[in-house]
Design goal:
This protein is α+β, with helices and mostly antiparallel strands and about 180 residues long. It has one domain. It is built from four helices and six strands; from the N terminus they run E-H-E-H-E-H-E-E-E-H. A three-stranded antiparallel sheet has the order 1-2-3. Strands 4-5-6 form a three-stranded antiparallel sheet, covered by helices on one side. Strand 4 (about 125-130) and strand 5 (about 130-135) form a beta hairpin. Helix 1 packs across helix 3. The longest helix is centred in the middle third of the chain and has 20 residues, at about 90-110. Bound molecules: zinc ion (ZN). The site of zinc ion has 8 residues, from strand 6. Zinc ion binds near residues 119, 121, 136, 138 and 149.
């Protein structure tokens, strides 16, 4: 399938094709709606994968298949595909999907997400004792060190952007006037 630019158009992954990543994305989308409720849920997009020639010659190429990315509902995405070996455990899948989701949100929507409620800083996915979490780098005070902001899938709402508040206020007024 080609679009007008001659590049391959991604295919939207259907539920159940990559169940480990489906489950992970559902949790990540929960974090997205907690802090960016105006955004539509992210989805999994697949592209055909061709091993690079050099890797193929060296016998290091992974088998041909698909690259799966976390993208926006309009079929765009940014950054690397989700590493295939992340399907090994639910925790690995969650961290990998969270990373890919964060890249897409930052580069295509220009939004820092998710944000630590305490420090208002962007957090990064990782693990603590094997548990998938969002890490915050901490505040300026040297005693205010790196900490876990939330488990992935359990991010709390921080604040409502002014544009959303204004829209909600407008909707409330309109419904009251009816
Ligand atoms: Zn913090």
């Amino acid at each position: 399938m080609y679009d007008s630019f001659g590049t391959h158009r991604p295919r939207e992954v259907q539920p159940g094709e990559y169940p480990e990543w489906d489950e992970a994305l559902a949790l990540v989308n929960r974090d997205l709606s907690a802090q960016l409720p105006e955004r539509d849920p992210l989805c999994l997009l697949a592209l055909p994968y061709w091993p690079e020639e050099e890797a193929e010659e060296a016998g290091e190429a992974e088998e041909a298949g698909e690259c799966v990315h976390v993208g926006l509902p309009d079929g765009t995405w940014h950054g690397n595909d989700i590493p295939r070996n992340s399907r090994a455990t639910p925790a690995d899948a969650l961290v990998a999907v969270a990373e890919a989701a964060q890249d897409t949100v930052l580069e295509l929507l220009w939004q820092v997400w998710p944000v630590c409620i305490e420090h208002r800083l962007g957090m990064h996915p990782g693990k603590e004792d094997g548990r998938p979490v969002w890490w915050c780098a901490g505040g300026r005070d040297p005693r205010d060190t790196k900490h876990v902001g939330a488990s992935i899938g359990k991010v709390e709402a921080t604040y409502r952007p002014r544009s959303v508040r204004r829209k909600e206020r407008g909707q409330r007024r309109r419904s009251q006037g009816q």
